[in-house]
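Design review, sub-item: ligand-bound model
Attendees: FS, YL, KQ
YL presented the inputs for the LBFN2T5F complex:
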Amino acid sequence: MAKEKLLARMERMNGLGNKILVIDMRGRKDKVTPEAAKRLNGDPETAFDQIMALYDPKKNAPDGWIDILNSDGSMAQACGNGTRCVVDYLSKKNGPTSFDFRTVAGALHAEKLDDGLISVDMGSPEFSWEKIPLAGPAAETTHIGLSEPYEADPALQRFSAVSMGNPHAVFFVPRDVDSYGLEDFGPRYERHPMFPERANISLAQITSPSSLSLKTFERGAGLTLACGSAACAAAVAAARTGRTGRSVDVYLPAGSLHIKWRKKNDHVIMTGPAEYEWSGRVDPETGVWERK
Ligand SMILES: N[C@@H](CCC[C@H](N)C(=O)O)C(=O)O
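KQ shared the predicted structure:
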């Protein structure tokens, strides 16, 4: 008789509505495959924005290595909301409150705070066109003119580019972020020839020197209710262009994230909630799953 495959523990969570699956791969040799990701996303019960696959600790990552998969099966270098979900999962299970992970983008430190919120050190932003990356030289990445094809509205023809480990284009808009039809042009902008690795496309409306509203069409996942790395990118771009200070609340449909861009070490600290929904088990190769 064929040996039954050992399923991996899977937690359905969300970070301000950003749909996350945490898959605990510690103690295993196999990997969560892009095929499994696509299958899980195709099922309405497990459809997600990102999978956070937690592997055994590696050098300089005492709490584990994290692979991030988008819902189209592609890999991402950063996921702020997903990182908070991993911290919530581990702090409930084992009790610790301070974590050091690693991803393809490097070290990732996070902490569960006394009030239940979770802070993630998202590292330093990068502004050079090669690192974002953009397709060609841009001396000043604070104000970049989008080449055609673009939307008729002038606010949608100029962006700030930031890498938070992953590529972000932030368009500062004068009106409510919901009034622009991001769902229509997001797919085209995500794959615009100026972004060789595609990009997360955000609309940001400044609402005060310490707050902004944000809507994001995520690379590899589409329109989502929240994107933590985009919140960091928008906050950094806003401060860099003098629109806000370095400490802001970023408002999303399900609540807000606090973003602080530290002067002392250039790191961006994102603080917000994570929410558990349900638990299950999954075959990481095929994406066949069951609810506990
Ligand atoms: N939702 C995430 C960002 C996920 C990665 C992104 N789609 C990409 O491909 O870069 C977040 O909370 O940061």
